Amino acid sequence: MFEFIHSVFPDFKFMWLSAEMKGSLPLELDFRNDKSNAERVEWNFAPRPDIPLTVPKMIRASERVLIMEYINGRRCDDLGYLRLHSINPAEVSREIGRVFAEMTYVHGFLHCDPHPGNLFVRPRNGRQTTHGHNFDLVLLDHGLYRHLSPRFRYEYAEMWHALMKGDTEKIKHWSRQLSGTDLYILFSIILTGQNWSAIEAKSLAKSTAPAHFSVGSMMKEHPDILRQITDVLSSVPPVLLLVLKTNDLLRMVDQKLFADQPLAVQQHAQLRTWMRISHYCLIAIRNARSQDIHHSVSRAGLLQTASRIGRLTMNWITFWVYDTALSLYSVVLTIED
Questions:
Q1: Mean pLDDT, to the nearest integer, of 297-322?
Q2: Rounded CA separation 80/87 (Å)
Q3: What is the mean pLDDT of the chain?
Q4: What residues are paired with 97 via a beta bridge?
C-alpha cells in the first residue's frame, strides 16, 4: 500500500514507516523471538541485583504459542493499587528510568514498547529482596527490541549531554550526526519534549519551574513545523525512531505516576529524570572515550603507555567531577523534599 501511495504521490515521505513495519511485524508475531529477547534481558540484568526488574520465565515457545510464568501484579500507573500496597510512585518512576537507561546506554538492547500495560508492579516485602524495594517491576511483551551500537550510544549520549548543558554548537553537531538533518531545534524539541527556549537557556537540568511544551506557540513560531517534522522523521535512522517512541512512552508513564502529586514533587521528579539521564550519558561517554584511547595507541612503548594512562586518568577524573556534582544536587533535592 505504501509503495502504491508513493508511486501516485512521489512527495510522500513516510516510506520509512513501511520499511519499519516490514522489519518489525514478522519478529513481533513470532513468539520464539519473545522468548529469546526475554532471556537476553534477564541475562543482561543478572549482575544488577539492586535493580528490581523481573522478567517472567519463558517455559516454551513456538512461532504461534508462548508458555511463560504467571506473575501477579497490576499496571505500573495504577495509583490506587500502589497506595494500597504502600508503594511509592516516585520509587517506581526512578526504577523504571534506571531499567531503560541501563538498556539504552549500557547494554545497547532496548525494549521499545514500554507502555503501562507492559510494565507491571508486583508487591514484595522489601526486607526479603536483594534490591531493598517493596515491589518488583515486571517487564512484559518482549517482541519489539532494538540493538543500539556502541557508536550510536556514544553519539546519543553526547547529544543528551549537549542538551543538558544548553551547548548550541554541540547540539547542532550531534543532531546532525544522529538525525542527518540541520533541523537541530526541532530535533531537540522532539527528543526532550521541551520548548527550545528552555534548552537554549541551559535550564533542563537546573530549573525547578514546571516543564511546558506548547504546540500552539510552536505553530506560531514555525508555521511549517509539520513539514519539518516530516523531514526529520524521514531522515533519521529507523533505530532512532524507535528510541524516540520509547522516550515518549516513558514520559507518559512518568506523567501518570505523578499526576496526583503536588507541583513541587512533579518539578523535582522532572529534575531527577534529567539527572538520571545525565548520569548514564556520562557513563556512556566515559566508556566510549576509554575505548577510543585504548585503540588510538598502537605501540607499547614507554611514552605511549604513559600518554594512554594520562588520558585515561583525565577521562575518569572528568567523569567523576561531573557525576559527583549530580550526586550532590540529588542530595539537595532530597533535603528540599
A1: 80
A2: 10
A3: 83
A4: none
Q: State pTM to two decimals.
A: 0.84
**Cβ atoms of residues 157 and 134 within 8 Å:** no
Question: In the block, which residue shows the cell 514555525?
Answer: 222
Q: Which amino acid is at 174?
A: W
Q: How far apart are CA 60 and CA 68, in angstroms?
A: 7
Average pLDDT estimate for 26-47: 90
How high is the pLDDT of residue 126?
Answer: 83
Residue from 130, 138, 79 nearest 111 by CA: 138
Lowest mean pLDDT among 145-149, 173-177, 242-246, 269-273: 269-273
**Across 20-34, 114-128, 170-184, least confident range:** 20-34
**β pairing state of 119-123 and 109-111:** unpaired
Residues belonging to the chain: 337
Q: For the chain, what is the largest distance between any 2 Cα atoms, rounded to a whole number of angstroms?
A: 66
Contact 164, 153 (CB under 8 A): no
In 242-326, which ranges are E strands? none
Task: Copy the grid coordinates of residue 295.
Answer: 585503540
Which residues are known catalytic residues? 113
**How far apart are the C-alpha atoms of 28 and 308, rounded to whole Å?**
45
| Spatial separation of the C-alpha atoms in residues 308 and 303, rounded to whole Å | 9
Beta bridge partners of 128: none
For residue 211, give the DSSP letter: P
The rounded distance, in Å, linking the Cα atoms of 20 and 173 is 26
CA angle 160, 164, 118 (to 5 degrees): 55
pLDDT at 200: 83
- Check if the beta carbon of residue 65 is closer than 8 Å to that of residue 234: no
Helix (H, G, I), strand (E, B) or coil at 145: strand
